[in-house]
Design goal:
heterodimer, A: 264 residues, alpha+beta, Uridine Diphospho-n-acetylenolpyruvylglucosamine Reductase, domain 2, Uridine Diphospho-n-acetylenolpyruvylglucosamine Reductase, domain 3, Enolase-like, domain 1, 3 domains, 5-stranded antiparallel sheet, 4-stranded antiparallel sheet, 11 helices, 14 strands, 33% helix, B: 154 residues, Ubiquitin-like (UB roll), DNA polymerase, domain 1, 2 domains, 5-stranded mixed sheet, 5 helices, 5 strands, 16% strand, globular
């Protein structure tokens, strides 16, 4: 690991002003991606700004949506009775991230700010059409997720919370990579009164994306057998040591069928 | 350099360390508590698991500074004098180890698993160990050990 300085910020405005003064500062949430990245020398920030004292936890019911504090850990979301009742698909998604130790540290804000193309949370954000709140503004999911490991966040911008609209039904099903537990393919299906949204993670070359063909088929008939073979194209899907683009296309169909069934 | 203070196994520890010191390095090299192991060093194997305020964490993926002010329990801190913790005793009685390298992490992970969940099935235990790797593939007796300890701890 390259050497770096470490500081704990006590609120988001202080954190933002500290990073503005640093040469190459990085915000630290749960650290479950950042610290392994530092250890592999894939990043060399001169300053780490820990956000854990910025009081960004807490989960609230906002009526038509729920709002989850950015520093809520995966275990907090998985075990939250409020989330389990309002949008059980999110609690279920959180309970499948990484392993227990990762869930005891990793945060929803950290995961979304990183926008890993195989992470679970981006599919919930896009699938539900959620909103990211920073200290400066609110950003719609589609505008926030700009590509693989990329978001619309400015250098000194910090996610403080995320709002997720409550769907009529929703489910997340993933085919985990057996070693890393990241999604080889993960599909988040959400049925709202005005239509079905389907977001796919783990498969797209540009990160999480909405599967419009599948959405149209499910709008027509919200049944597992609406997802027919060939509906999902392998174009623009990732191909790597774990799975070919064609196999991922097949998995998208299968995970969608399972998610529709899980919606009940 | 920065000053880090934490309570480790009931003793307070305050030391000045480089900012990017990992918690596992602090435990092993600064405090000499070498029961916590470094296996993969990539947060996958779980040999470095300790409890931070009662929750299991991988100490190779945490800065010591993040644990400032916390209560840390390592494998050295769970026995009561010469009396082994029920989980340690169960690993002993059920031959829950082969080479023993993963054992400290297995025991610390299992204690949290059993403490947080009642009526664990064998499947729950196997799934609950997803963050721990036994390179000897000795999972069978590890699971048996945890089942035995769960009965004693309930």
């Amino acid at each position: 690991m390259y050497s770096n300085k470490y500081v704990k910020a006590t609120n988001v405005n202080k954190a933002a002003s500290i990073i503005a003064d640093a040469e190459d500062g990085k915000f630290l949430a749960g650290g479950m991606t950042l610290i392994p990245t530092l250890k592999q020398r894939l990043a060399s920030p001169d300053l780490i700004i820990d956000l854990s004292d910025c009081k960004l936890t807490g989960i609230e019911d906002e009526g038509a949506s729920i709002r989850i504090g950015a520093m809520s850990r995966h275990v907090d979301v998985a075990e939250s009775v409020l989330v389990q009742n309002a949008i059980p698909a999110i609690a279920n998604l959180a309970s499948q991230i990484g392993d227990r130790q990762v869930r005891n540290r990793g945060t929803i804000g950290g995961s979304l700010a990183n926008n890993d193309p195989a992470a679970c949370y981006p599919s919930a954000l896009l699938g539900l059409g959620g909103t990211i709140h920073t200290q400066n503004r609110s950003i719609l999911a589609e505008d926030f997720l700009t590509g693989m490991f990329e978001t619309d966040l400015e250098e000194d911008e910090i996610i403080i919370g995320i709002s997720f609209p409550k769907p009529d039904k929703a489910a997340y099903v993933k085919f985990p990579n057996p070693a890393s537990r990241y999604a080889m393919v993960g599909v988040f299906v959400a049925k709202f009164s005005d239509g079905v949204r389907v977001a796919v993670t783990g498969a797209g070359e540009d990160g999480v994306f909405r599967a419009s063909n599948i959405e149209a088929a499910l709008d027509e008939s919200f049944k597992a057998n609406s997802i027919i073979d060939g509906l999902v194209s392998a174009d623009n899907l990732m191909s790597d040591i774990h799975a070919s683009a064609e196999y991922r296309a097949h998995l998208i169909g299968e995970m969608t069928r399972r998610a529709v069934i899980a919606c009940g | 350099m920065l000053t880090v203070s934490m309570n480790v196994n009931g003793n307070s520890a305050t030391h000045e360390v480089p900012d990017n010191t990992l918690l596992v390095t602090f435990l092993r090299e600064t405090l000499g508590l070498t029961g916590t192991h470094v296996g993969c060093d990539t947060s996958q194997c779980g040999a470095c698991i300790v409890h931070l305020n009662g929750e299991s964490v991988k100490s190779c993926s945490l800065f010591a500074a993040q644990a400032d002010g916390a209560k840390i329990t390592t494998i050295e801190g769970i026995a009561d004098g010469d009396t082994l913790h029920p989980m340690q005793q169960a690993f002993h009685e059920n031959h829950g180890l082969q080479c023993g390298f993963c054992t400290p992490g297995m025991v610390m992970s299992a204690i949290e698993l059993v403490t947080k969940n009642k009526n664990l099935t064998e499947r729950d235990i196997r799934e609950g160990l997803e963050g721990n790797i036994c390179r000897c593939t000795g999972y069978h007796n590890i699971v048996k050990s945890i089942q035995a300890a769960a009965e004693k701890m309930s």
